[in-house]
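User: Hi! I'm working on a homework problem where we have to compare a predicted structure to a textbook description. Could you give me the structure for the chain below?
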Amino acid sequence: MRQPLIMGNWKMNGSREEGVQLAKALADGLNAGSQEVAVCVPFVYVSDIRGALASSPIALGAQNVADQASGAYTGEISAAMLADCGVKYALVGHSERRSYYGDTSQSVANRFCQAQKQNVIPVLCVGETLEEREQDRTFQVVDEQLDAVIDAAGIEAFANAVIAYEPVWAIGTGKTASDEQAQEVHQYIRKRIADRNPAIAEKVQILYGGSVKPDNAKGLFAMPDIDGGLVGGASLDAKGFLQICHSV
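Assistant: Happy to help. Predicted structure tokens:
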């Protein structure tokens, strides 16, 4: 039985004070349960949020990680630095990084590998744009994004990684894939892993990340291959995020 994982992605939002208050509200409101909870926070607030979550089971995540170990890479944050600050998870290949900042499948694979070298768990984000879905290329896009990491790290790497399916057309648009649409892609991803290693496919957590909200979370999480959510905007509201966590 896979443990559900609910992960908030705060993106580039909030002040230090707001972040600390949000973290404390989440820590205070989270009931003991079978789900794991994590928040991916802006780099500059990692230490502050770590302190606010010190007595909480909520894990700390980063929104990105460098594709190099160290060196003259101005503005980058290495996996070793994240590990040094108590970060457990790091997003790699989020659609906004791919779309706005030029991340390629190869650079995402490098980020994935760098995270694992420092025992930071990579959360590999994959998903298609609206144009790609309308062209019936969803599975082709997912294959290309997933295979780049499999080729670089090996299928065994997914024994200590998370996958997040995020249909780009459903991020920040108010649109959400139906429960059945999301399940179809999650099932496809799991089968893609199972073709190489059935045992890892059975254990790997696959999250849905496309406008998850309190009113649609329960239906999504009831699907057999959806193991939780990567929550964007709704994770900035403590009450709403906690409702999502409790809906598992």
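For your comparison, note the following. The chain has a mean pLDDT of 95. The two ends are 14 Å apart (CA to CA). Good luck with the assignment!
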